[in-house]
Every structure is written in C-alpha cells, then in structure tokens.
C-alpha cells in the first residue's frame, strides 16, 4: 500500500467521523426543536374565566386597584387583602400571578408609592 492510498483512507476515515458527529449534533438539535414546538407536558395557561368565582373577584379587585392607582405594580399586602378568606392553593396563586403579569402588573414587596 502506497503513502497516497494511506492518506486517502485516513482522510475518508476522518470525514466519516465528522459526519457521525454532525449527525449526532443534528439529532440533538432536531429533538430540542421538536420539544420546544410541542412540549411533552403541554402547559395550560390559566384563564380568568376558569378561576373559581372568589378567585375571579380577587383578580378583578387587584386589576381595578392597579388601574385606579395608575400603577403597574401592587404589593403583597394588596394581594393578601384581595384573596378570599379560604385556603388558597398554589395553583390559584400561580394563576393570579400569571393573569396579573399578562396585564403588565407585578407584585412587589413594600409600598407602591
């Protein structure tokens, strides 16, 4: 076997390894793209209409307060005042925070002034 043939076989072997690495990278990229477009655990966004009546009233009260104050933020104290006098689930709180953020309103520590 001559030096030229060895060099050619080495080059072909290197190209095959590069192709394998490229194929593996492309498979990872394709999987990530598919997961981004169609998440496994389809996240359902909270809806104002899907909330219980007392939670809808709390959201409406918070939105009205933010509008009346012409503020894009409220305090945790405002949130506590608006919540119904029952145990509020983490899902309820998550829905409230989501809906408020959709309206551009944040809940922060301290005074809104």
Question: What can you see in these coordinates?
Answer:
This protein has 113 residues and is mainly alpha-helical. The protein has 2 domains: 1-43; 48-108, no CATH class. The chain is 64% helix and 5% strand. It has 4 helices and 2 strands, in the order ααβααβ. It has helices at residues 3-37, 53-69, 76-82, 90-102; strands at residues 73-75, 106-108. Strands 1-2 form a two-stranded parallel sheet. Helix 2 packs parallel to helix 4. The longest helix is centred in the N-terminal third of the chain and has 35 residues, at 3-37. The protein starts with a helix and ends in a 5-residue tail after the last strand. The model has no long low-confidence stretch (mean pLDDT 77).
Keywords:
mainly alpha; 2 domains; two-stranded parallel ribbon; elongated
Tell me briefly what this model is:
This protein is mostly helical and 113 residues long.
Sequence-ordered SSE layout with sheet pairings:
Layout lengths: L2 H35 L15 H17 L3 E3 H7 L7 H13 L3 E3 L5
Parallel strand pairs: 1-2
Helix pairs in contact: 2-4
């Amino acid at each position: 076997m001559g030096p030229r043939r060895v060099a050619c076989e080495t080059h072909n072997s290197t190209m095959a390894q590069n192709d394998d690495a490229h194929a593996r990278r492309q498979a990872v990229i394709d999987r990530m793209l598919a997961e981004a477009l169609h998440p496994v655990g389809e996240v359902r966004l909270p809806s104002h209409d899907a909330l219980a009546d007392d939670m809808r009233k709390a959201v409406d009260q918070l939105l009205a307060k933010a509008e009346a104050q012409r503020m894009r933020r409220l305090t945790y104290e405002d949130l506590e005042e608006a919540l119904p006098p029952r145990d509020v689930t983490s899902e309820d709180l998550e829905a409230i925070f989501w809906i408020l953020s959709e309206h551009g309103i944040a809940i922060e520590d301290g005074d809104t002034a």
